Amino acid sequence: xxxxxxxxxxxxxxxxxxxxxxxxxxxxxxxxxxxxxxxxxxxxxxxxxxxxxxxxxxxxxxxxxxxxxxxxxxxxxxxxxxxxxxxxxxxxxxxxxxxxxxxxxxxxxxxxxxxxxxxxxxxxxxxxxxxxxxxxxxxxxxxxxxxxxxxxxxxxxxxxxxxxxxxxxxxxxxxxxxxxxxxxxxxxxx
Length: 190
Prior knowledge:
The chain is mainly beta. Helix content is 8%, strand content 29%. Strand 1 (3-8) and strand 2 (11-16) form a beta hairpin.
């Protein structure tokens, strides 16, 4: 192993050269408060790129269970997150089945509870509105406790401020925040 030595005052600091985290490991460092998400998700409709991590001091490996809500793969929507993304603690991804029909006399999902209610619910009332996949590009930073709604697309290099609710697409290399999230600025000039 090669070692790089740096003098800081009268002290030396040694760092291993050519050491990068293995994208196939769960924990990229000894603290075990961050995990590479692709190595802990099991649902076939959640696709995560290399080096994308979730940071949570309590349970970083519980990302799928705690942070991807209303995920029923048979519904057909997906959560796709690119490479090198940073996802802060408490971020929630709300999948399509969280929606209720708005075009009926009632918004109550009778069919979900089975029995006679399921049998007597007309087919058109049991079909949930399909918003599409949630797609997060590469190198995206999502701040603490943010909520990403169904069908949203977040472009490469975007930053989502903490506690934001993202209801619409966010262009690449922009900073967005608020409830609902709005574009605050571009990360780089034209």
